[in-house]
Amino acid sequence: MKRTWWKESVAYQIYPRSFMDSNGDGIGDLQGVISKLDYLNQLGVDVIWICPIYDSPNDDNGYDIRNYYDIMREFGTMADFEELLAQAHERGLKIIMDLVVNHTSDEHPWFIESRQSPESEKRDYYIWQDGEKGQLPNNWESFFSGPVWEWDEASQSHYLHLFSRKQPDLNWENPKVVEEIHAMVKWWLDKGIDGFRVDAINHIGKAKGYPNAPNPDKLDVVPAHYYFLNLPLVHDKLREMNENVFSHYDIMTVGEAPGTSPREALLYVEEARKELDMVFHFEHMNMDHPGGSQGKWGLKPFPLTRLKQVMTRWQEELHGKGWNANYLSNHDQPRQVSRFGDEGEYRTKSAKMLATFIHTLEGTPFIYQGEEIGMTNVKFDSIAAYRDVEIRNYHQAQRKRGKSEADILKAVWVKGRDNARTPMQWDDSAQAGFTTGEPWIAVNDNYRAINVEQALQDPSSVFYYYQKLIALRKQSDAWVYGRYELLLEEHPDIYAYTRTSAEEKLLIILNFSAREVSLQLPDGLVKASPELLITNADEAEAAKQADLSARMLEPYEAAVYRI
Ligand code: ISL
Ligand code: CA
User: Fold this and answer.
1) Is 256 designated active site?
2) Considering only CA atoms, which residue is closest to atom 10 of ligand 1?
3) Which InterPro entries match (predicted)?
4) Which of 270, 295, 320 is the last residue of a domain?
5) Is the CB of 267 under 6 A from ligand 1?
6) pLDDT of 441-455, one tens digit each?
7) Pocket of ligand 1, candidates 59, 332, 390: which has the most ligand atoms within 8 Å of its Cβ, to mutate?
């Protein structure tokens, strides 16, 4: 496998609105990010992925872009961005931007012109279907509740939006659209940024003729496949973009690709195909979705063996061909410790265990802001406290169907995107040190106990555990490039595997349960004196139990050995 800097890197995702506010208006901003670059340096990450900072009316917090060539006023100016880039580079940090090109804002000048009349020059920049008011062109459901079609009175026609009605989808079949996007992407790369996270990229192709879906209630991932997921056009357009733009720069690209299997992912990331470097898959994010009419909003328990199955398939099928992007949380998902670990007694322990998992798989690890101090989900007691358009639309749609306020809240507590969007908890002062003003979304109450200042003062904190993991990964070839092999496939609580390179073999042991469990490894796997590289358990205890072939694991224990 070819060596590249982005395979050897650890990435850190910033949601700028919630990261750090420098001027007291309650909204995180670019100067805020600049003020925390030393903190990120201390953590040891290499790449920052910054969520959209382009000019936007903020219907979807920047994922609705009004001007691709300008910075959102609340976040600062282009000069602030240039300063951020320079300051990051000075510290050896790379910056990748979010590239949101499945759709724009309905306030983008292209859309304003497009909607003016069917004769407009920009009409075909978007997807229009004539019809009659009240008669939808088909039954497709948008990701944010309600139909994908919005009626436009002026031109007596519907436009398509897979996300909110303020996010009309671009028409990628129009070569002029493609040309505009290439020029824009080049413009940013020429500024010196280090790559892109490409938003919702596998949705840019839509099924010809817009046929009805068989499940009018709510599209789940399977039927959606045929209509706007991973269609051939996506690959044509990515290859074109790669050839014309990406391949002329030393950058990294990671596409967002929900509903994608490892086999489909290889079409994006197999090196010879020259499309993207990695994709974020969602198979492990969807394991706890009941699906069907509940969509993502319910909670379905899943056995650990299912997680092993899913992740193992990604590890094995991409090995030697493409590269994985590994994560357990981001700005669209609940907090990982609340979802896969324990927010109570074992919060820090399980946060470290989950970190060990993501950082020891083959692939580039992505840390989501706050994860490195074990931030948790939030439970606001009223829908009014939530800000997310997806949550607001879900609330409205469910109220119409008669669901109680309490039941809606319960669903939002487990799955709502705002769980990940409460302000970063810097210290135990008012508003967690995020702002001197009124934050745009309330701070999680637990900030007095969970914050960066506390973590930096505690040598056994989650933060220092991440720091050590990141440093260890850099020193080992097996850690980055080694082949993954699953052990104890059927074990209900323990997830264990090895990573093997020509010179080295690592053994990773993770207890995903709150129980003490006994570990029984296959005979002959471990040599006489394995070297313990990192553990979240008491090191002295772990050292005493040097006999790995029969060892007790503490609740949520994690350990990495060189064997
Ligand atoms: O519903 C989905 C697929 O089943 C989603 O995973 C969807 O594709 C995904 O949420 C897209 O997310 C990205 O684009 C959105 C934005 O709101 C998210 O924050 C962003 O990560 C629209 O730009
Ligand atoms: Ca601000």
Assistant:
1) yes
2) 332
3) GH, GH13_cat_dom, Glyco_hydro_b, Malt_amylase-like_C, O16G_dom_2
4) 295
5) no
6) 999 999 999 999 999
7) 332
- 289 and 238 belong to one structural domain: yes
Q: Which of residues 444, 475, 506 is at a domain's end?
A: 475
- Is the CB of 332 within 6 Å of ligand 1? yes
- Please indicate, yes or no, if residue 427 is contained in any of the structural domains: yes
| Tokens encoding 404 | 């109680």
**CB 279, CB 330: distance < 8 Å:** no
For residue 221 and ligand 1, the question of a CB distance below 6 A is answered with yes
Measured from the Cβ of residue 231, the count of other Cβ atoms closer than 10 Å reads 18
Tally of domains within the chain: 4
Q: Is residue 301 part of a domain?
A: no
In this prediction, residue 529 carries a pLDDT of 84
Residues 215 and 278 in one domain: yes
How far from 341 is each of 1, 335, 373, 425, 517, CA to CA, in Å? 33, 10, 14, 20, 16
* Ligand 2 centroid, distance to 436 Cα (angstroms): 10
Nearest ligand, CA of residue 24? 2
Catalytic option among 21, 59, 60, 256: 256
Same domain? For 256 and 351 the reply is no
55 lines ligand 1 (CB under 6 A): no
Assess whether the C-beta atom of 200 lies below 6 angstroms from ligand 1.
Answer: yes
> Tokens 């306020």 sit at which residue?
405
Residues 467 and 486 in one domain: no
DSSP string, 106-156: TTSHHHHHHHH-TT-TTGGGB-EEE--TT--SS-PBPTTSSBSEEEETTTT
Position 221 scores a pLDDT of 47
Instruction: Provide the ipTM.
Output: 0.95
Which residues are placed with Cβ below 5 angstroms of ligand 2, an ion?
A: 21, 23, 25, 27, 29
Q: How far is the CA of 62 from the centre of ligand 2 (A)?
A: 15
Q: What is the CATH number of the domain that holds 455?
A: 3.20.20.80
Test site for ligand 1: of 163, 165, 169, most ligand atoms within 8 A of the Cβ = 163
Sequence-distant (6+) residues with CB within 8 A of 223 are: 213, 214, 215
Instruction: Provide the pairing of β-strand 149-152 with 157-160.
Output: antiparallel
**In-domain check, residue 277:** yes
Ligand 1 pocket check for 100: Cβ under 6 Å = yes
Mind listing the pLDDT tens digit for each residue in 208-228?
999 988 764 555 544 566 799
Q: Say whether both 220 and 260 belong to one domain.
A: yes
Owning domain of residue 140: 109-160
8 catalytically annotated: no
116: domain CATH number is: 3.90.400.10
Mean pLDDT value across residues 319-339: 98
C-alpha to C-alpha distance for 203 and 169, rounded to whole angstroms: 9
For residues 356 and 434, membership in a common domain is answered with yes
Q: Would you state the pLDDT for residue 296?
A: 86
- Verify that 338 and 439 share a domain, yes or no: yes
